[in-house]
Amino acid sequence: MSFSVKSKLLISGGVIASAAAIWHLLCIWGGPSWFAFARAPKQIIDSAQQGTLLAPVGTIIVAGLMLACTVFAFSAVGLIRKVPLVKPALITIALLCTLRGLIGIPAFATATGVDIWQIVASTVWLYVGVCFIVGSIEHSTALKSGT
Fold first, then answer.
1. Which ranges constitute the DSSP H helices of the chain?
2. Which UniProt keywords apply (predicted)?
3. Which residues, at least 6 apart from 90, have a Cβ–Cβ distance to it below 8 Å?
4. Per-residue pLDDT tens for 15-43?
5. How many domains, in total, are found in the chain?
6. With 80 as the cut, is the pLDDT of residue 110 above it?
7. Distance from the first to the final alpha carbon of the chain
């Protein structure tokens, strides 16, 4: 099976999304210190410390959304069977990931200095957003040409 560069970018975006999903799920196992390291909101860290359901349920939902990104990416390039709504899903994912990547830019410099974690996370999600943009363009082009 041979993939175009655009398809490889979409595959890499899907792999990153699945790795991020796994990381989120590992935070449940790792406990409050892992949520804090991952820069989770204070309410999630408090939930993990208190043993309430907000942290695990919220984390499972976020991980599920990230895994859905992987499913749509892999479906678009033909690694897995076709799933419904691939085109609108790719566009939505591309926009959300790109927005997430750009939102972090103002947070690079905080009152306490440069936040390396925010730089890395924003750069990764911006890359994933670009991968999904390129992949959605290729997928739309392939649909129009009938391949």
1. 5-30, 32-37, 42-50, 54-77, 86-103, 116-145
2. Membrane, Transmembrane, Transmembrane helix
3. 10, 72, 73, 76, 132, 135, 136, 139
4. 999 999 999 999 999 999 999 998 899 99
5. 1
6. no
7. 15
- Lookup: tokens for 30: 């790792």
pTM here is 0.88
Which domain does 130 fall in, by range?
5-145
The number of beta carbons lying within 10 Å of the beta carbon of residue 13 is 29
As beta bridge partners, residue 110 has: 113
The span from the CA of 108 to the CA of 15, in Å, is 25
- Residue matched to tokens 């309410």: 43
39: left (phi over 0), alpha (psi -120 to 50) or beta: left
- Report residue 4 as tokens: 């175009």
